[in-house]
Amino acid sequence: MGRPLRKDVNGVDVIGTGASTATGVRIDFYDASLRTDGVIIKQRGSKSYVVTRVGDIGTTANYVTAKLVSGAPNAYGEMRL
Fold first, then answer.
1. Residue 41: which H helix or E strand, with range?
2. Residue 29's closest CA among 20, 4, 18?
3. Arithmetic mean of pLDDT, 20-37
């Protein structure tokens, strides 16, 4: 799986810290029928993450398993950092 993503370059935790706008890694991902901003909840593999919208942290029904892509996310389950 490689090295897991735990902290950003400043040493701040990036997983599941989307409640504040100053911490965490913001992502774009495709959820249902639209591209939206989100945060990483946990890492599942080298290019696979569980993500959710910024306001939905803690609501597990809205979590999406997304695959990291190089371009803009255009299909359900795609994301970019």
1. strand 34-43
2. 18
3. 75
Give pLDDT, residue 68: 92
What range defines the domain where residue 54 resides? 1-81
Alpha helices in 1-81 (DSSP H): none
**Torsion sign, CA atoms 51, 53, 56, 59:** negative
Torsion of CA 57, 59, 62, 66, to 10 degrees: 50
Tally of structural domains, the chain: 1
Task: Specify the length of the chain in residues.
Answer: 81
Model-level pTM greater than 0.90?
Answer: no
**Token pair 């999406």: residue:** 64
pLDDT band at 43 (very low <50, low <70, confident <90, very high): confident
**Whole-number Å distance between alpha carbons of 69 and 15:** 19
What are 17's two structure tokens? 């810290």
